[in-house]
Amino acid sequence: MPLVLAAAIALLTGLLLGGSGYALWGAGAALVGVLAQGRPRPGAPLGGAIPPLALLLAAAAWRGDLAGREAERCRALVASRRHWVATLDLSPAAPGERVRATVRGDGTATCHVAATLIVAEGRAHPGARVAVAGEALATPRGVLVRNARVAPLGGTDGRLAARARAAAALDRRLGSQAPLARALLVADTRDLSLDLKDRFADSGLIHALSISGLHVAIVAQALTLLLGLARASPTTAALGGLAATAGYVLLLGAPPPAVRAAVMLAVPSVAKAIQRPVSPWASVAWGSALPLLDDPLAALDIGYQLSVGGMAGLIAAGAWARRVVGERWAGWRGTIARELLTGTAVAVLTAPLSAWHVGRLSLVAPVTNLVAGPLLAVLQPALFVTLAVAPLPWLAGPAAAATHPLLAGFDAIASAGAAVPGAAVSVSPGAFAAVATAVAVAGLGAGCLEPAWWRRGSAVALAAMTVLVWQPVVAPAAMTELHVFDVGQGDALGIRTRRGRWVLVDAGPAGRRSDAGRAVVVPSLRRLGGRVEALVLTHPDLDHVGGAATLIRRLTPRQVLEPAFPGTSDAYRAALVAARATGARWRAARAGDSLVVDEVVVTVLAPDSALVADARGPNDASVVLGVRVGDVRWLLTGDAEAGEEAWLAARWGPALHADVYKVGHHGSRTSTTPPLLARIRPAVALVSVGRGNRYGHPDAGVVGALARRGVVVLRTDRLGALVVRTDGHRLEAEAAGERWPVPRRAAPDTADW
Fold it and tell me: pTM to 2 decimals?
């Protein structure tokens, strides 16, 4: 057992030391020892693990460093070019679309980079091999290619094309429930809404939205059962189930969690065939190591880490639950007690991974998983059957009809769990807090495995948690953030300080059946955490104030600023009523006013009283904000148009220079005039705009003028939510899941705002 525990700890700790991968060589040596050892010996001393653990950690660090260097070299090589050969993922390429692809860097199988293509020209089907030309930006995950021009080269990745056809079949049969079905069955999460992801995260069921060992195991067991019912021998049923499972994993594209599950299912079957007893830890070790032979960097994926950590926690927690329950409860009471204790222990043992990757801890996860587990065990095979009979109309209809209530019930469990007050806690752990928590979990895990280790493991856990008293779990952020929420045709922005406090600017649109404040902004802020200090409403148009009343009631900002230009919409009046009801201090925003929140200085650049009095409409009196963090500047212009822009240029002159510019009026041709753009000289332009909007925003002339000046243009209609970060000197941008540094331009010698 010590050697197995050493391998498990090495798989986790090696990532931290190596930075990019796990101990492939060391894990291989551990596997040989595991298989030679056979079943674990009760009470085996932990001290024997120290020598092999040290060797495994050294191998992990070395192998991880090599993998990290190679990945960095490959990203730099791809980003330095302007033409590539790529393979599209599950989405078809078309102008205006954002698609995932794999780009080859040097024509070899070893240098391949995940890419996000913002397609400007060309069309191609999912899985197609294409030629790509465009402008690439290196990101930690791969590259982002802007203005991509795509041309088919011939040839298709069969697995990706099969997954795309499967996704299309589920779309036809399951309608609005298809996005959830695709995530559960074919690992396609493209169309999952932010709201759905949030409620699954809060309820502790987020792991179910990505294909993992649980999904593969359910399918394998269902197939084995069907073969058994067909009177196949046990050996034939087991081998047939494994073969079908292998085909399913290949169809998915062999994601590491699914490969791990398939290997874990195969190891006991092979051991039984050769009449060799095997420890469950041997299955975990084999399943953990083999997926990394193809791609060591897969170890950085949250799905892989939760899959391995969850399985290790399940073995340890199961042993502990059986000891605790023992003979105290029999029958169904004992089963429920064991399942509840096991679920609680697994949630605790995987808490550091959830906190690090998701930023929240679900407190209701043990209960929701206990309730959802049996339903998922039925839902997964039902989805498999629905897909299998999709080409047969007389069978597909009844199969889909039987699947609909299962999907609805699964989503209802997540919704009910997320609705529990205090269901989840938002956290932002620093590296020190994460390591200390992991040490505590390792101690508890050791105590769960063997009674003889309980005291020592508990002592280690207590010591690590004591250290956390001096190191808060919620750590200050390293950088200040500007979020542009994806609210469609409207504006909703948020400035987040390093201490987690917020200044919100606008609240997005609202209608009879929609409210961007409730659907987008509130869930985003609750996921990220922090207190709202102020809400600035740039003007009373519905696409900016539609969700304001909801934001004020639910987030209770301390103060509300707006231009005091009379608005006639019900949403504007509701926002003012909500501000009075919650006790928020109302202020008329006037040029020269300022607001300081932690390291962020927000200055009102427009309007002044005369501009408001002379304004012919609300856009002419939009609140324009200058935001300063260190020596970095952001300019947020609301819906300011040409007249107000001329006033700004005359009033502030060269002081309008900003590194980041929120494009006025969603990119309308009545804004972003050349005189203003010459004053700003931005490095990044952010456009908040709805996809396929009827106004034609952003205007091609505006986008072209920005491009000619070398400005990086980021649009919510193509990239979704946008984030810009700064530490007061450096600048970073994040879009479509990619993050990259942005070179700043030399600032003119100007007066401050």
Answer: 0.63
